[in-house]
Amino acid sequence: MDELQRGLEVAVRGQQADAIVRRVRKQLQQWGLTMPDVAPLVLDFGLGNFEQIGEVEFWIANEAAAGYCGKFLFVFGGQTCPSHMHREKLETFFVVKGSMKVSYRGEDRIMNAGDTLLIETGAYHSFTGIEATLLLEVSKPSILADNYFADPRIPIGGNYRV
Q1: What is the pLDDT along the chain (162 residues), one digit of tens a residue?
Q2: Is residue 66 included in any domain, yes or no?
Q3: CATH of the domain at 124
Q4: Alpha-carbon distance 89 to 69, whole Å?
Q5: What is the number of domains present in the chain?
Q6: Is residue 162 part of a domain?
Q7: Distance between CA 117 and CA 80 in Å, rounded?
Q8: Who's near 27: CB < 8 A, 6+ residues apart?
Q9: Are residues 72 and 91 in contact, defined by beta-carbon separation less than 8 angstroms?
Q10: Domain boundaries, position 48
Q11: How far apart are CA 154 and CA 159, in angstroms?
Q12: 16 occurs within a structural domain
């Protein structure tokens, strides 16, 4: 099973997901942006509190054999992607629209449209939208088991045990 399918299995679904995707697409339309024709991944990280802890991902490519991944990540203002790290994945963030606070290696920084940040393997990081924010992630392939969350309640990733 591919990683996107695994992600969709733990994503928010149904009417809640549909309503969230409509909100995201409305914001993207206001910005004059169009996402790829892919199924968005609406994530609440298994905590059931999407408005505070969540994100929406649009996977462009996840080419494990070729060694690369590209995806758009969207957070609403006040919404956080929780602290986590990767043992294998190196990633670079590019802020397309909006602004966010990134916690990386124990420091907080503000990133605005046009800013980039290299996220090294083994480094805990999280980000919170100051306002609605769209970022492009370019990275090594995305493998769900290579996400190690600081919050043990998150039921996915390499440190989760059933």
Answers
A1: 477 676 767 789 999 999 999 999 999 999 999 999 998 999 999 899 999 999 999 999 999 999 999 999 999 999 999 999 999 999 999 999 999 999 999 999 999 999 999 999 999 999 999 999 999 999 999 988 899 999 999 888 887 654
A2: yes
A3: 2.60.120.10
A4: 10
A5: 1
A6: no
A7: 17
A8: 74, 132
A9: no
A10: 3-149
A11: 9
A12: yes
